[in-house]
Amino acid sequence: MSNYITAQAREIYRQVLPDLFKRQNVVACGLGYKVSEGQTTSELSLIVSVIEKVPRELLLPQDVIPKSLEGLLTDVVETGRIRAQMPANPKGRFRPAQPGISIGHRDITAGTFGLLVQRNGAPFILSNNHVLANSNAGRIGDPIYQPGPADGGTASDRVAALAEFMALDFGDNPSQCRIADSMATLLNLVARVTGSSHRLQPVQQTSGVNTMDAALAQPDTPDLVIPAILDLGLPIGVNTPALGMQVQKTGRTTGLTNGYITQVDVTVNVDYGGRTASFTDQIITNSMSSPGDSGSGILDMDRRAVGLLFAGSTSATIFTPIQRILDHFGVELAM
Question: Collapsing DSSP states into helix, strand and coil, what is residue 19?
């Protein structure tokens, strides 16, 4: 079975993607091999992930997924709602701290220390924005606890400070327009004078498209962290994720698990506690994680890093290719 994706398939994917996301229950779409009677075939398909499969007769015509689109087969799979993987089982205190264990911003529950990276010799903890930066709510310098607060972490368990994060784009940001702010202030004054309890809050419309959920924390001292991943050991380099690739990870909740890549080039909507963020060019595996595993480093079976886990459902795990994240922050793996 080849893991090569043709240029024609990628072009069809790009053309039909916007229409597919208009259909009921669709939460993700990528390229992968069609599964028939529980067996993975060699037929390259558009894999359309839905919250739940609904009988065709109960769907509106515009919500039905055709058996093929522009000559490319489709395969509808039920994944449930895909969520950022936050809270779960308690984990212990590790000194030195290492990838694969509980960690978190002081105001969250807990996630996973993904990988140790470095820049100009200085070490940084790599995990998700929603683990280290509280989904954009954190401020640079905020304390990071190990274990995370849900696992008993307190101020005495501080190991690092939030250093950088890629902001999550939910389709709107606080207003930066003086005119809009002034108009909202005026109209809110009118509302108050007239007895209305409603108020206006100006926002800036944004693209709402994300490429990663990632953040860095700087250890308080270099000796507080080591690069060896719990139960896996030292990563030996970086690799590019490919369709069908066997992968593994150690996470706070489910520990050491393995799986395989079922879809690439994925566009997916992720639920962050009621707010939805759209991501492009992501990777989907079969289920190999649970809430609290967010931030885990994904490795191939030769222990080369291929991605950073940030979301999933009961039947799928979502990760971002690692090289994109390393390039964005200008860091490299600590090995």
Answer: helix
Give the chain's residues under pLDDT 50. 1, 87-89, 175, 180, 184, 199-200, 202-203
Report how far apart, in Å, the C-alpha atoms of 109 and of each of 14, 48, 96, 146, 323 are.
37, 31, 21, 11, 27
Other CB atoms within 10 A of residue 276 CB? 14
Calculate the CA dihedral of residues 72, 74, 75, 77 and round it to 10 degrees: 130
**What residue spans in the chain does CATH classification 2.40.10.10 cover?**
84-168+209-333
- With contact defined as beta carbons under 8 Å apart, do 261 and 284 qualify? yes
How far apart are the C-alpha atoms of 37 and 64, rounded to whole Å?
A: 21
Question: Is the separation of the CB atoms in 309 and 296 below 8 Å?
Answer: yes
Residues 6+ apart with CB under 8 A from 176: 204
Task: Kindly calculate the radius of gyration of the chain based on its CA atoms and give it in whole angstroms.
Answer: 21
pLDDT digits (tens, 9 = 90+) for 87-130: 444 579 999 999 999 999 999 999 999 999 999 999 999 999 99
What is the C-alpha separation between 218 and 51, in angstroms, rounded? Answer: 38
CB-based contact 24:60 (threshold 8 Å): yes
- CATH architecture label of 84-168+209-333: Beta Barrel (2.40)
Yes or no: say if 119 and 285 are a contact pair by the CB < 8 Å rule. no
Structure tokens at 277: 């963020």
**Furthest CA-CA distance within the chain:** 70
The sign of the CA dihedral 242, 51, 294, 286 is: negative
pTM comes to 0.84
- The residues, ordered by sequence, that sit 6+ positions from 322 with a Cβ below 8 Å of its Cβ are 115, 238, 297, 298, 305, 306, 307, 308
Reported as type and span, the H/E element at residue 31 is strand 26-36
